[in-house]
């Protein structure tokens, strides 16, 4: 019989604080420990989970800004009672005093361990996936619309620059106040022209990617075409890119003749993100998505294999940026820049201005020019592509790289030190202010709260670093479920493992106890089983075991998270089209385990009739 044990948020934060007290026993006495625990308990009772998911993270962001020497900490501004005669909070003031002066500025030799502990407590619930309100949904949509209005302003200046570049030969152009801006545009154009000199945008293998599309087809319905926009067909002819062969067209001649050529808009959807609100995704029409996926992957593979960009622009590897953040926090040589609403602020005019004509022609052919908002309003798009398009990420990264590299000019050291992964950018610190000014002059917007230029704190691609040490906290996302759930089980085993590796053993024991009550004994890593496992578990010996003579090994019966298989047999031509477009997916360098609402399991033989759905995993007892 399984005895359920709920995992209470009060218990988790209390266990974490006990671990923090143990790590810093020199500064915490019994009285201060008791006072801290009581304060947390009382504020949760009065403010609810918002104290953990909103109030504490605000104090954490204020700490980070102080560590970058941008703004001294003032706890009263964030709802915390200060130590008398100080700007530091009474709450965990023992640790804040090891890092900051009473005026909120950084000490000459701050305690890295104290920074690590503070950030773990303050950011523990920052990304907790709590329900959000309709007001938060509307705020996200309003920001999306407002960005379009902002782009109207920058569009005018971009078109003026384009006219100036085209009107006067570069070598004979007289000096003007736009000299520097025009030079950067021309150099960025040359860089992208050189990058794509040998790239053929028509040599692509189309395929379907994210499951949700604006036209709402199920996956097996996507391979039967009812509409192909004339905008795409002028560059990617329907008979060449949407059908397997002329035999395919002949067999489906009625459908081929009946194809419409309407330019359908994309569709905005809101997907869960965390307690701060949802994430906005613009689902593409199925005919656009088909080409976007092929062109996007071709660009990514070309950029990551070309000498000009393979050491500066990354799509499948975050390690260079993460290492750059650690190095920058060690000696301050490198700054990390984070762009705000980056995917929504790369305008179509900027892409036309910078990219070579033959590349822009291909990009424009498979770009949605409008999207439908949740209210039903059709919004014309001035941005090149919102999040949801496969072309959004590579075009955004290359735009940023080209502008910054052009700005660096002949400074080879600066050019080689620019690292771009999406909207995470690393540049030399001496170049950071020029980089910010230049990016914003083209309509992009820097998130100054998350950009780290001074001090010795840096963050990039999920790595937070201070004085060369990784101080990234464990952030809970998945809400604990009191009933057996594959997502909850896999997530909380992973959280427990992270806490164990960081030395937070009280939290680890608490989570393991709750997991064991609900799921029974859980295997350990030293058993080398292909299933969720823990670093250590005294109950692991209670797992049922057997000797498998066929495999000549010992097996244990354990819980495993497996995708839920879906089988749907399509018509022959649709299956052949899917085979030609996706049969090589396992070897693609631009694949992730989760592809929209669908998963491709690399260790499962490819089948044109089998699919697995995201968020439809099952928890199954198996022998391993």
* First-to-last CA distance: 23 Å
Structural class: alpha+beta
Count of DSSP-assigned helices: 22
- Biggest β-sheet strands, sense, barrel: 4 strands, mixed
Shape: globular
Number of strands: 17
In short:
The protein contains 22 helices and 17 strands. The protein is an alpha+beta fold and 624 residues long.
List descriptors.
624 residues; alpha+beta; four-stranded mixed beta sheet; four-stranded antiparallel beta sheet; 22 helices; 17 strands; 43% helix; globular
Kindly describe this structure.
The protein has 624 residues and is of the alpha+beta class. It has helices at residues 9-23, 30-47, 50-67, 93-96, 112-123, 134-167, 179-195, 230-233, 238-241, 246-251, 253-257, 286-305, 319-331, 342-345, 348-354, 357-365, 392-408, 412-417, 429-441, 486-501, 505-519, 572-582, and strands at residues 266-274, 277-283, 334-338, 370-372, 378-380, 419-421, 424-428, 457-460, 463-466, 469-470, 545-548, 553-562, 565-567, 594-595, 598-599, 610-613, 618-623. The strands form 5 sheets. The chain has a 4-stranded mixed sheet with strand order 2-1-4-5, covered by helices on one side. Strand 11 (545-548) and strand 12 (553-562) form a beta hairpin.
Question: How is this fold's topology laid out?
Answer:
Blueprint: H1 9-23, H2 30-47, H3 50-67, H4 93-96, H5 112-123, H6 134-167, H7 179-195, H8 230-233, H9 238-241, H10 246-251, H11 253-257, E1 266-274, E2 277-283, H12 286-305, H13 319-331, E3 334-338, H14 342-345, H15 348-354, H16 357-365, E4 370-372, E5 378-380, H17 392-408, H18 412-417, E6 419-421, E7 424-428, H19 429-441, E8 457-460, E9 463-466, E10 469-470, H20 486-501, H21 505-519, E11 545-548, E12 553-562, E13 565-567, H22 572-582, E14 594-595, E15 598-599, E16 610-613, E17 618-623
Parallel strand pairs: 1-4
Antiparallel strand pairs: 1-2, 3-7, 4-5, 6-7, 8-9, 9-10, 11-12, 12-17, 13-16, 14-15, 15-16
